[in-house]
Amino acid sequence: MCGIVGYVGDKGTVDVLISGLKRQEYRGYDSAGIAVITHDGHISSAKKAGKLQALVDELAVRPVAAGATGIGHTRWATHGAPIDANAHPHLADGGKLALIHNGIIENYAEIRDEMLAAGHEFVSETDTEVAAVLVGHLVNSTGDLRTAFAQAVNRLQGAFTLLALHVDEPGLIVAARHNSPLIVGFGDGENFLGSDVAAFVAHTHRAAAVGQDQIVALTADSVTVTDFAGNPASLEEFEVAWDASASDKGGWPSFMAKEISENPDAVANTTRGRVVDGSVTIPELTELGDDYLRGVSRIIVVACGTASYAGLVGAYAIEQWARIPVDVQLSHEFRYREPVISADTLVVSISQSGETMDTLMAVKYASEHGAKTLSICNTQGATIPRESDAVIYTHAGPEVAVASTKAFVAQITALYLLGLHAARVRGTLDATELARNAAELEAIPAKLEQVLLTGSTVAQLAKWMSDTPAVLFLGRHVGFPIALEGALKLKELAYIHAEGFAAGELKHGPIALIDHGQPVFVIVPSPRKSEVIHAKVISNIQEIRARGARIIAIAEQGDAAVLPYADEVIQIPLADPLFEPFLAVLPLQMFAMELAHAKGLDVDQPRNLAKSVTVE
Ligand code: AGP
Fold it and tell me: Is 304 a catalytic residue?
């Protein structure tokens, strides 16, 4: 939930730290801070509650001195309110040690009592300061930062990525990870640490993920890795596939606007290389093997939030094409229900960040109980893919805005490719049907470009509705998960009550919510190929309109049946019913963004949220 950065080298350390934090601010923005070992051998640090800009403003008045070794942190608060005193870095050992942390230390209270009994004092409410004081205490007993740090991390329980530096060992940063992400960036005469590659992609594309329960000693020209017991370990280097400009706004008013505009490319880039001559092959699935896929009796999808709604959409396609039952479960519920798992159960995790702790724990549970695991992930080298038997990377590019947009359509793309790949292997679709559906998928980017053209209409609608207190969303079949996603986007971005329903559920209670003027978005199925469901949704619209609802219909071009009953119609291009979700979600993403804009809210960093939820 926090962004961390570490640097040892001869560039301007403060600038490297601040720019690294800026590219990771979406991971948490309750406070920010940096600490540097100065050339004259002391620690110079600054930290401020609020977004990174507050720290930048502070540094303009009280700059942190130059140095070759530094760490930085942008926080999503877990223990202790987001105030200056609780911001990281935390100092210890008389101001000679600085430490930053991402995660939650579950046994901090007992260690805090131990340190108090040893005569130490605390200035914050955080679990992180306890770790800092513990390391400082052990440095004094061992005389060595590496040894002290190793002893400390072996005491800690919970989830943590820790970085620490000490004035007695300038040029060295020690770091460790347990159930929380940490990436190394390899430079020339300089090295980097980050929560993800965004921390240093502007300086190097050479990276490696630190493994579970590993410790890194990083200097300007060396990276040494051991396990928590001190045994040597190694890292697997990879090349970062995107450059820093991809994580810049590029002239857009917000990352949200930029990433919504990238929906077409997210689908195209995820499809590319996996649809060839009308057939679908996902090379990464060779890890599982065709025989295994032919034997799969059930798929369980584990995901959270928007990713879970992508799973709900994908379930329709996979069941229809590959004839495999698909059960979508929220990661944080999955392992506590003692799920029925067998050797022929494939557990598919969906995670944009690849670091969502709930989903990581679900994947580990599935593996421990005999299932094969497949990760659908948008972040190279992330923890969940590394804990899975196979991975299908989506290629949406870095998604910086906290509310997910392009990654969502990329996740659906990956699930559709999985369904078609499995259908080919299992022989449940013939070549003609495979080719037809593959062509539908390849046609989606161009159709999304057409939907983007409705942006000004949607923006006007959002302005009209800027004071609405609540919005409902209705959908049927694959439109139902889109109703859920549309509601989540509005909650996340505009902070208003929004709820998605299966349209057929309305009469079983929710219709009581309908009052005069209540805005209701309705995702209308195609009248051409879903006549029965289309007719039912039209009658649902009539039922709520009769009770005063204000209907905003998302309907395909040429659907005349909806016109008499809708106050607004946002038209989307014709597509096969299973492919409508790609197109129907885009106006809802734009609507949520525009309504948030109209309310003067920060669409990239909504309150209380963080891009990667790395605590359970
Ligand atoms: C998406 O708009 C939300 N920010 C959130 O629901 C997100 O989808 C969820 O936390 C899962 O994140 P992940 O895909 O990185 O695992």
Answer: no
